[in-house]
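Students often ask why we bother predicting the structure of a whole assembly rather than each chain alone. The short answer is interfaces. A chain on its own may look different once its partners are present, and contacts between molecules only exist in the joint model. In this exercise we take two input lines together and write out one structure for the complete complex. Read the inputs first and try to guess which parts will touch.
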Amino acid sequence: MKYLTLLLLASVLFIMGCEDKPDEQPVTSLDLTWTANYDGETFLTFKDYTYADGRKIQFNNLNFFVSDIALISADANNAQTELVEIDYVDLSFDETRTSEAEQGKTVSIQDLPLGEYSGIKIGFGVQADLNRSKPTDYGNGHPLTRNFWDGWSSYIFSMIEGAADMDNDGNIVTGGADTESFTYHSGTDEVYNEVTVSKAINLVDTNAPLQLKINVAELFRNSNIEFDTNGDGYLDIENFPGTHSASGEMTIAKTIMENFGRALTIE
Amino acid sequence: MNKFPSLLITGISILLLLLTAVACGDKEPIDPGPIDLPNDLLQFPYEPETHTVDYPDWLGEMEIPEDNPMTVQGIELGRRLFFDPILSADSTMSCSSCHNPTQSFTDGLATSPGIDGNLGRRSAMSLINIAFVNNGLNWNGSSQTLEEQALEPVTNEVELHETWPNVISKLQRHESYPQYFREAFGISDRDEMTKELAAKAIAQFERTLISYNSRYDQIRYGTGIFFEDNEFNGRDLFFFEQATVFDEHPGCSHCHGGVQFAEPDFFNNGLTEAATFADFPDKGLGEVTNVPSDNGLFRPPSLRNIALTAPYMHDGRFATLEEVIDHYSSGGHPSPNVSANIRPFTLSPQERDDLIAFLHTLTDTSFINNPAFQSPF
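Now the answer. The structure tokens for the assembled complex follow.
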């Protein structure tokens, strides 16, 4: 009996020893870097820019969520490799932080399969499953611990705040009874915007960062004539100085979120 | 030199101490005697009991440092230190002098005088649900953790104006604190009593200061009661979800949103007219970050128990909630970085009363009356 046991044990060890180990697929890392510009100029808060209709405009806040960023494989099955499930991107840097604005926000992704990819998918906003959660579901430091509308059970997908020379007197008034501020807060599932950008990406051992550039000026491009009373192709910021994504102004919120796709260039 | 007498005296002293401990029981404080006796605290038990903070899930996740787990003994030591004027140079003031439980851990003053009678720059913030603040404590976010924050008032010249070495020396010679430190942290002798351990204990106590039983909580989180009409109207004025930007609306929840009624951010709420970033008399967050556009920004306080924490703002400039609302309805004062959400609005007297009625639903008297939060002295 003990010989049988010994034989059985030896057999098991032999089989285990000869079992094929799965091939370890080579992996690499990739940095995604978000930066903002205003028609090509480094975007800085509290700096005067010229809006599409010629008036002065400045910003004090630019932030947004991105969801489900994935690379799309170049082969026939177009399989997706997830890079980021959710992230909060705050690109609000004043002129004393110009170098930080130029460097932008970087997220590093590890253990990506080497190979060729044909494009990248990015969701602007908080994808629906995660948008069912709330800040108290997460620990300190998680992207989704802020910018939440409790009453609507939605995150604020993007916040664009600032002020503009609404009365065209050459000055921008910030605060007080005559404030010329604007606040564009876009949220709810309805305005979530997923875009896919075609771009040949070949991941090798060492990869240059993927630069994701947002042209803030393009965020106000208006596809809906209702809010483009000037007829210049951009949101009439004077008469529509904001949105809370409430009924009656949801179109503005939706357009801004769609414009994130139009404002994006990838290098 | 003949060492026999000193050895004999030391031996007898230790024997007497042991006999005293046995006779009086482990919990009884002892005469500390000489403070340099090695391992003289081993006579007391170190049997820390884990304390699980009881609060509903909807309050979120409390971050507890791994190196400062909450124990019954640690919290009790922290409570004693919090209420004990031994932390001040002249033994006249404690943490509780500015953070009084009956006023939701504020002091009812615009700015608080320290032991020398000098006024601090800013109003004492409420400690309500302070354990859930993760983006920097104090009005300007200058402390990242409760442990770090607890060290500061002791040495602040306009607060307790003491030194930590003095405090530790007083605690080492105290009849009870060495035992309490032993029971909380397992130290062996008094030399191991440190300011860091004192701060840890205070932080443990502060993490217990949790409120979740206001009238608003009872309504919002389902106990079957409802707002009165005026409270409900006030609720709609407080939260901005139903308002478009074309409506004149207080929109309080832009800065006071979330379950704590305080966004984890810093804002300029238009209190001070400033032509440039350099013109703010109190730089607020800018003092900490050295970023000019952070000047004049402050952490929004939780509005829980706001009706009990007058006066208001970081400098206590407003005596009443009515004054606060009037400030915001005016649009505040111009400055380069005032929050874009501070916009003028008009409220009728009834609407203003309704908004205040809503704010009163955030009052939690069970919090201020909780026996565990009161002075042990």
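Check your guess against this: The helical segments of chain A are 2-18, 98-103, 250-263.
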